[in-house]
Amino acid sequence: PYPSRVRIIDVGPRDGLQNEKTPVPADIKIGLVQRLQDAGLQEIEVTSYVSPKWVPQMADNHAVMSGMARKAGVRYSVLTPNLKGWEAAVLDKPDEIVVFGAASEAFSQKNINCSIAESIERFAPVVDAALAAGVAVRGAMSCTVGCPYEGEIAPERVAYLAGLMRGIGVQRVDVADTIGVGTPLKVQRAIEATAQHFGIDDISGHFHDTYGQALSNTLAALELGVWNYQSSIAGLGGCPYAKGATGNVATEDLVYMLQGMGIETGIDLDALVDAGQYISDFLGRKPQSRVAVALLNK
Ligand code: HMG
Ligand code: MG
C-alpha cells in the first residue's frame, strides 16, 4: 500500500543553482520559480542565506525572494545556517526555514565549518526565533547513507542527528543522500533511524542521483510510507562541498513515476517539462531529465 498522494519540494532554484558555474541572474531564478508554481508545485526551496564567499551563487537571495510573485498556498523555503542567515532571511518573509546539519563530522566541517554538536548550538536560537515568528522549521540531514570524506554512514549516526534536531524543536526533517551513493535497503535503514524521532509524515526523502539510484530509493521510501520528497527541476545541481555529486532526482522523472503509479502530486507534467526547458535553455544545455529526453525523441 503506497501513499495515495505525494508532496514534492522542488529544490532546483537552491540545491540546483547553487552549484552552477554559469552565473544565473535573479530574474531568471524568478522566472524559474514562476514556472514551477504554475506547474503546480506547492513547495519551492528558493535560496539560501549563507556566506557569499562560500556560495556566491546564492548571494542574490534578497533579490529573488523580494522579486518573485508569490502564489497563495505555495510554501517558499530558504536555508539559514545561523542567526546571521536567519536575520537576513526573516526580512524576506519565507514560509519555512531550513537548518542543515550532517550525520558525518567531516562533512559538517567542510560544509558549515563546525562540528555536529556546534551546528546544533548554532541552530537552536534560529529554530527558537523562527517558531516565535510563526515560520516553519525543517532540518536537512546530509550524508545519511554515505559521506564523501568518511564513506558509509551507520544508521545509528542518523538516529543521533535526528534526535538532536528533534531536541531543538525542528518540525520535520529531510533524509538526504548527498552524494547519491545510497541503494534502497540502506535508504530504508536511514529512514527507520530517523523515524525513532520523527513521525513518518514529517520525514522527507532527498535523493541525489549520482549513481542512478534515486528513483529506486524513492520507491523504497514510499514502501515505508514516506510521502514528502525533494527533487530538482531538470535534475539540476549538486553540492559544492561534495565533489562529483550530481543533482537531485529530476522532478520530471519523479512525477512521471508517481503518476504512473496513480499517486497524486497536483503537478502538470507538460508544464513541468517546460520549466525544465526554460532553465536548461538559459544554461545552454539539453534538459537532463529522462522524461524530457524521451519526449524530445518522440
Ligand atoms: P564561518 O566562516 O564559520 O562563519 O562560516 P563565521 O560566523 O565565522 O563568519 C565568517 C564570515 O561569514 C563573516 O564575514 C560573516 O559575516 C559571514 P566576514 O567578516 O569574513 O566578511 N557570514 C555570513 N554571511 C552571510 N550569511 C550568513 C553568514 N554567516 C556568516 N548566514 C557558514 C559558516 C555556515 C556561514 C559558512 O560555512 C557557509 O556559508 N557555508 C555554506 C554552506 C552551504 O550553503 N552549503 C550548501 C547547502 S547544503 C546542501 O546543499 C545539502 C542539502 O542539499 C542536503 C543534502 O543533499 O545533503 C541541504
Ligand atoms: Mg542536496
From TrEMBL:
It comes from the Bacteria. PROSITE patterns: PYR_CT. Residues 6-273 form the Pyruvate carboxyltransferase domain. The keyword Metal-binding applies. Keywords: Lyase, Metal-binding. GO terms for molecular function: lyase activity. Belongs to the HMG-CoA lyase family. NCBIfam families: PRK05692.1 (NF004283). This is Hydroxymethylglutaryl-CoA lyase. It comes from Diaphorobacter limosus.
